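RECORD TYPE: inverse folding
INPUT: structure tokens
STRUCTURE:
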């Protein structure tokens, strides 16, 4: 690909700190985003110059609060965000990309195959009964720019095991959504939503994550897991 189209890599050691020896995989994924991802409408052309900070690293740093060996369902995965960066940064994770649009599913499968990642890609919506039966009992459900918190909780919390976490990557609206939708989150079976910032020393601004634990209507029982970070 032409050098002018290459995604800018942040200066300094931050990508190495997040991806380690798999940095080259992250770079190749970023290249997919700014080439075929733009051509096929998965990200906008204006996002290409900031694909590392705004997309790849912004998602990967959420690994700080993901338990070891977690089973993750990435709802409304779109361009594979945050599921693919998490899978690159944390090869111990078991990631499923759930996406309803056929053209996006096709792109995701092509990219996952090219990167050689052990990721499952499924076409479907989290609220569909067949999807829930297939993927319920997840340790973590992730979502980025998918829906307001109340609707997101109604889709994602039923996929979690008891004690599992929904991690919703949000922007400036996070605090307002938590205040507005906390009651709806509880009705969906979640606990009190809380805001966690990830990526200190790596990304600026920090990644904002709304964390919701499933507290009732359990799936499979919680297993003993050690967390890498404090959520």
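DESIGNED SEQUENCE:
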């Amino acid at each position: 690909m032409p050098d002018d189209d290459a995604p800018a890599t942040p200066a300094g050691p931050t990508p190495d700190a997040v991806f380690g020896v798999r940095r080259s995989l992250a770079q190749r994924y970023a290249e997919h985003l700014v080439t075929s991802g733009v051509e096929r409408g998965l990200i906008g052309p204006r996002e290409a110059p900031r694909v590392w900070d705004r997309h790849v690293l912004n998602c990967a740093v959420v690994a700080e609060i993901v338990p070891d060996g977690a089973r993750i369902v990435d709802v409304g995965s779109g361009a594979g965000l945050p599921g693919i960066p998490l899978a690159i940064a944390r090869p111990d994770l078991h990631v499923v990309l759930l996406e309803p649009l056929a053209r996006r599913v096709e792109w995701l499968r092509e990219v996952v195959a090219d990167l050689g990642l052990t990721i499952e890609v499924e076409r479907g919506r989290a609220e569909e009964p067949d999807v829930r039966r297939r993927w319920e009992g997840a340790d973590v459900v992730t979502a980025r720019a998918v829906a307001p918190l109340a609707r997101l909780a109604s889709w994602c919390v039923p996929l979690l095991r008891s004690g599992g976490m929904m991690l919703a990557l949000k922007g400036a609206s996070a605090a307002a959504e938590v205040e507005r939708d906390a009651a709806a989150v509880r009705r969906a079976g979640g606990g009190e939503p809380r805001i966690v910032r990830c990526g200190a020393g790596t990304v600026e601004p920090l990644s904002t994550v709304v964390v919701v634990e499933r507290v009732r209507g359990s799936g499979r029982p919680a297993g003993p897991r050690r967390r890498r970070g404090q959520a």
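NOTES: Residues 218-227 have pLDDT under 50 and may be disordered.
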